Amino acid sequence: MANLVDNLRQAAFLSFAKRGISHEDAAVAALALNPLDPAYKGDRRYEKTALKLSRQFGRRIKREDSEEIVADARAMLAEYKRLAVIHGEPYYAQRYDRALGLEE
Predict the structure, then answer these.
(1) How many whole angstroms separate alpha carbon 84 and alpha carbon 79?
(2) Model pTM score
(3) Which residues, 6+ apart, have CB-to-CB distance to 20 below 8 Å?
(4) In sequence order, which ranges of 2-104 are alpha helices (DSSP H)?
(5) Alpha-carbon gap, residue 101 to 97, rounded angstroms
(6) What Rg value do the Cα atoms of the chain yield, rounded?
(7) Which of 3, 36, 54, 102 is the most exposed place for a label (fewest CB within 10 A)?
(8) Domain extent at residue 78
(9) What is the count of structural domains for the chain?
C-alpha cells in the first residue's frame, strides 16, 4: 500500500510540474492530493475526513490554473493541519507544518 501511495504522489508531482508549477509547490500540491501516510495508523475519523477533502481538492484542481492550484493546495494543508490538531494527531500536524515551511 505504501508503494502505491508513493507512486500516486510521485505521479501527481510530475503532473503538477508539467503544468509549470515549481518543484517545491508541486510537492505541496501532491501532498494535498494524497495527504495520508500509509505507514502511520492514525485516527480513523481524521483519515476519513482528510480523504473526503482530498477528493474534493482533486476535483477542483481540474479547473484551476497553476497559481490557483498552489494557493488551494496550501489552504488544504492548513485545513488538514487544523483537523489533525482537533483529532489529536500530532504526527500529521507536524507533517503539514513541515510541508508548509512552518517548522524548521
Answers:
(1) 9
(2) 0.86
(3) 66
(4) 2-18, 23-33, 44-60, 66-86, 90-100
(5) 6
(6) 13
(7) 3
(8) 2-100
(9) 1
